[in-house]
Write a structure and sequence with these properties.
heterodimer; A: about 120 residues; mainly beta; four-stranded antiparallel β-sheet; 1 helix; 11 strands; B: about 110 residues; five-stranded antiparallel β-sheet; about 0% helix; globular
């Protein structure tokens, strides 16, 4: 069982809707990530938070807005999405304050399946 | 730009046969990780390799990191149906902060 919890597991939204994906971990990890994965493709990094501050934004469109309210929570706010944004959105976390830099193990949640209609 | 390629893209094997996937980077990596993703599931960490020429084993799985730290391989001996899934490598550069996932190899094991 994963220790990174994502909700909802499935989400269908219209192009004018505003919705949020939520992620929670209680492992004391200080780095958290959002990845996007299309079918039969590898995960693509979107955002990295380190110590609750945004450290990496992989040129993600502004219709995706991340938020890290505290060290255990990570949200992804969605607005005015396009059908091509339909994908599996994976949250992940790693231990160190600079998990990406040190190569710590990345723990993935089970993902949120997003369909934009 | 940085690319991490894996070959083959797909592999079908009879149960009991061996399987190998290869990961190749266009630039030198500081370390590399391997993940397994079952159909409909999420990536699960398998192992991390850091040293040039490093070899690690986990039961029937053998992981290697090339001497030049530009390639890596995962070898499964005597595959089982539980090995089905997509295997991803993920490499990190010395400069820059993120891991780049490889293109993945989808393994099908025929009983």
């Amino acid at each position: 069982d994963t220790e990174v919890t994502q909700t909802p597991k499935h989400l269908v939204m219209g192009m004018t809707n505003k919705k949020s994906l939520k992620c929670e971990q209680h492992m004391g990890h200080r780095a958290m990530y959002w990845y996007k994965q299309k079918a039969k493709k590898p995960p693509e990094l979107m955002f990295v938070y380190s110590y609750e501050k945004l450290s990496i934004n992989e040129s993600v469109p502004s219709r995706f807005s991340p938020e890290c309210p505290n060290s255990s929570l990570l949200n992804l706010h969605l607005h005015a999405l396009q059908p091509e944004d339909s994908a599996l959105y994976l949250c992940a976390s790693s231990q160190g304050p600079q998990g990406v830099y040190s190569g710590n193990t990345i723990y993935f949640g089970e993902g949120s399946w997003l369909t934009v209609v | 730009g940085q690319q991490v390629m894996q070959i083959p893209q797909y592999q079908h094997v009879q149960e009991g046969e061996d399987f190998t996937t290869y990961c190749n980077s266009s630039t030198t990596l500081s370390n590399i990780q391997w993940y397994k993703q079952r159909p409909g599931g999420h990536p699960v960490f398998l192992i991390q390799l850091v040293k040039s020429g490093e070899v690690k084993k986990q039961k029937r799985l053998t992981f290697q990191f090339g001497e030049a730290k530009k390639n890596s391989s995962l070898h499964i001996t005597a595959t089982q149906t539980t090995d089905v899934g997509t295997y991803f490598c993920a490499g990190r550069l010395y400069t820059g902060n993120q891991f780049y996932f490889g293109t993945g190899t989808s393994l099908t094991v025929i009983p």
